[in-house]
Amino acid sequence: MSPTHATARRAAAALAIAALSTALFAGCANPIEDLVNQGVEGAIEDATGGEVSLDGELPSDFPAEIPLVDGEVALSAGTGGADGWMVMITASAADPIADAVAKLESAGFTKNTELSGSGAEALVYSNGTYLVLVAADGETVSYTVTTATP
Q1: Beta strand 71-80 with 51-53: parallel, antiparallel or unpaired?
Q2: DSSP H helices in the chain
Q3: Along the 150 residues of the chain, how does pLDDT read in single tens digits?
Q4: For residue 10, which of 61, 91, 86 has the smallest C-alpha distance?
Q5: For residues 120 and 90, is the Cβ–Cβ distance under 8 A?
């Protein structure tokens, strides 16, 4: 399989995960859900050895060179390295996807791929070190980050 096809497949899988996560975590804001979220965080962390946060924290090893839109972190998860990270942000920008793209491009990332289908659109950017799949649904911007394979 060519590197382009492998990147496209990884990006498509990441888009599916991001879309599912957006649907699952939209509107969480009551005490029972908070308790469930704490249990979910612990279960995922125990199973994967990674960090999960449903309360506004980025994973401690999230790459600082990846610019994120301004807003509130709604969900983050990651084990770093080849397994990567995922961050969902409730953006404060008027056009969240345009803001995300502008920040990535200003940081030296270039667009690799654009994916669309079933009403969803996502963009894959790279800086040679990281692949960043960025997608937006209304004010929610999802980032799925993995290390780029040489």
Answers
A1: antiparallel
A2: 3-25, 31-48, 96-106
A3: 555 445 544 554 454 455 444 444 444 444 444 434 444 444 444 444 455 555 678 888 899 999 999 999 988 888 766 678 999 999 999 999 999 999 999 999 999 887 766 656 789 999 999 999 999 888 999 999 998 876
A4: 86
A5: no
